Amino acid sequence: MKKRIGVYPGTFDPVTYGHTDIIRRGAKLVDELVIGVTTNASKSPMFNLEERLAMVRREVEGLEGAISVVSFDSLLMDFAEREGASMIIRGLRAVADFEYEYQMAGMNQQLNSRIETVFLMADVALQPIASRLVKEIALYGGNIERFVPPAVAADVGKRVALIGRKGS
After folding, report:
1. How many angstroms separate the CA atoms of 153 and 145, rounded?
2. Is pLDDT of 139 > 90?
3. Which of 9, 15, 30, 31 is the most buried (most CB within 10 A)?
4. Catalytic site residues?
5. Which residues form the domain of 36?
6. CATH number of the domain that 15 lies in?
C-alpha cells in the first residue's frame, strides 16, 4: 500500500497555535505530514527562513505522527510532487480565507490533478489568529502569549526588542 503523504505549506512567520492545531489534526489524516516552510518576500517576514524552520521544528517536536519540516522556494504543486504528496492541507479561519484558498485550490488542480487539497476548519477558539496580526500586536507592545507557544512569544519578543517597538 502506498504511503499517504500530505503537505502543509506556509510561511509560519511566526508559527501560531492555529498552525500547530492544523498540524496536529492534519498529521492524523496522513502517514506522513511534510510541513513546507516557504519564502515569501511579499509578506515582509520578521524571521528569516532558517529561524522559521527552527521555530516550526521545535514546536512540532512533541506532536504525534510522522512530521517533517523542510523549506521550499518553488510552486507549491512542484514541491508537493517532489515530496510524493497526494494532498495539500490548508487551514481555514473565515470566509475570506475560503475565497482565496478555493481559488488557489482550483489553480493547483489545473497544475496537477493528482494532488487533492483538503481544508481543515480552524478550531473556533483559534479562528482569529493570524501571524500578521500577532506580529502587529507584538510590535505595538501587546501581549501575544494566548496566540503563540511560549518559546515563540519569547522569540518574537527578542526580535521586537532588536527592531524596536512602534508607537513608543
Report:
1. 6
2. yes
3. 15
4. 19, 43, 93, 131
5. 5-125
6. 3.40.50.620
Tell me the pLDDT band of 167, cut-offs 50, 70 and 90: low
3-state secondary structure of 142: coil
What the block records as the C-alpha cell of 60 is 512540532
Question: What pLDDT does residue 168 have?
Answer: 58
- Domain assignment present for residue 82? The answer is yes
SS3 assignment, position 6: strand
Any domain includes 144: no
Cell of 43: 509578506
How is residue 101 written as a grid cell? 484558498
Cut 0.85: pTM above it: yes
Does the pLDDT value for residue 5 go beyond 80? yes
Tell whether 159 is covered by a domain: no
Pairing of strands 87-92, 5-10: parallel
pLDDT computed for residue 25 by the predictor:
96
Determine the Cα–Cα distance for residues 17 and 23; give it in Å rounded to an integer.
10
- The count of domains in the chain is 1
